[in-house]
Amino acid sequence: MEIPPKPPQLLLSSQFSLQNRVCEVTLNSAFLSWKEVGLRQKRTAGNIYGPLKAAGSHYVPVCEIVSVQETEEECPSAGVGKWQKVPQNPSESNSHAFTVSYVERTQKHRWRCSEVTFHCTDGTLCLQWVQAIREQLSLLTIRPKSLLVYINPYGGKHHGKRIYEQKVAPIFSRASIFTDVIVTERANHARDHLKSEAELKKYDGVVCVGGDGMFSEIIHGLISRTQCDSGIDQNRSDETLVPCGLRIGIIPAGSTDCICYATVGSNDPVTSALHIVVGDSQPMDVCSIHHDTTFLRYSVSLLGYGFYGDVLTDSERKRWMGPARYDISGVKTFLSHRYYEGTISFLPADRNVGTPRDKMQCRSGFPKIKKSSAGCLQTDDKQVSKDKEIFSDTDTKGVWQVIRGKFLAINAACMSCACPRSPKGLSPSAHLADGTADLILVRKCSRFDFLCHLLRHTNKDDQFDHPFVEVYRVQQFRFTPRHEETDSELDLREAEGSGRKRIFSQICKEHSACNCGLAQSSWNCDGEILPYAAIQVRVHCQLIKLFARGIEEQSIFDEPSALSAI
Ligand SMILES: Nc1ncnc2c1ncn2[C@@H]1O[C@H](COP(=O)(O)OP(=O)(O)OP(=O)(O)O)[C@@H](O)[C@H]1O
């Protein structure tokens, strides 16, 4: 039998004045709440504040209080050169007050830092409240106290420094968070500093002010440092990597801020700063990419060969055009309609983690999957037997599958890859932290069909519902472009086809102009080009953690009554 949770313990309850109205303010271990009880002007004998009124109630979870401080009240007679009405009785002046800063939800998953100031005539009572709230906040040990901040001053529209100073630093300071700030001086400055110099023990987290490229630098620095400190060789693709201890916060200040959008639900610096302050924690999977025994890169969002690789390669040549280059390169690549031959082999994920087409979107706290100390995944979902092992990071017992063919695009999405342009993303049901990636294979098809598929990234239709698109949820995969296939692979392939094809492919090894299996694309790895086409990819479950909570269900903040009911 389940024991019902204990009701939160009532800590304080007093009446204060709020904007000239009287409020009953209550603090328990879960909520600070206030409710208007009457108007000061309607005071009647025997009942200080007159008849009670059921007015709007406000509930702020204690874990969403940013700070509390005593507020200096201006002396009413301190105005210069103006007549001031001096109160007859000094106790009437409500000269004591304290202000609570807290998280308020606005539209589109945005948070803002709101304030409420409670006034009263009793200084000791105010102090008692301030101390009681501070005491509750001090119990929230998940909140960071000390952060290492890296700012890319050249990300996006070059506003990173200003965004941090004007919007973020004041919130950190209000929450009494200590910060060391480094404004980067070159590309890879943050990565190299994290890898070797940074005194990580001093901090509770790392903050990245920039775009996805800057975030990639930060994770490369932090993951490499963690593996190095643990004696793990990153060049070995079969190593089980050690999860990073420090959480990472993203303050969006780039031209592409997809990771922030997919983990917080908006690209708003204040929202991100507040998620850091309240100490949110969102685990995230990371893919390691190797070419034979050489480690290449880590990826957290999109790995794309073919279409997305070609768009990036072309857009890099057009950097001078600014963000418009992505559209121009996109159209150019679409019109060129190149396809690539190769072999994909993959280790499918366990069926318990769902499928790419199950329409189970990754939302805050869902799926409730956690990593056990043994390194395997567990779920809290009652539909799956308790503590049932889903699969382990090191599990390679599954059966590898092999697919050969001609592809316009091969994409692997470690998360939905939702962004403002594609609100549902490349793989709308991909999860942030389930130890899998969605492998999407777009086979050679007509331009029109491919256009239909691409357009579905921007609307609500199922982009996988085409005969030329296949999608698999995988733990690992390998890709070998046609021309790099070993003799045994070629023999296998040609055993399936005609002998004539083999001769043809040998001739074409020297023939770069035709598109007969030799054309080679590049992998776009979170916006960076990989130097090899033949790669092995492995998903490392929950290797990093962000100061985020995933995208909240809209209803949480659309219906304040839901909160009041708690
Ligand atoms: N001080 C610096 N000078 C030049 N480049 C830097 C500096 N600091 C970081 N970088 C590099 O700038 C690149 C882009 O940064 P960021 O992701 O913040 O902005 P962005 O505008 O979103 O980038 P992108 O052009 O990739 O869309 C990163 O790959 C990072 O390595």
UniProtKB/TrEMBL annotation:
Any Pfam family hit: PH_CERK
GO molecular function list: ceramide kinase activity
Transferase found in the keyword field: yes
GO cellular component: membrane
Biological processes per GO annotation: ceramide metabolic process
Family matches, as Gene3D superfamilies: 2.60.200.40, Probable inorganic polyphosphate/atp-NAD kinase, domain 1 (3.40.50.10330)
Domain DAGKc intervals: 142-293
Record's keyword terms, sorted: Kinase, Transferase
PANTHER family to which the protein is assigned, alphabetical: CERAMIDE KINASE, SPHINGOSINE KINASE
Protein name: Ceramide kinase
Organism: Bagarius yarrelli (Goonch)
Top-level taxonomy: Eukaryota, Metazoa, Chordata, Craniata, Vertebrata
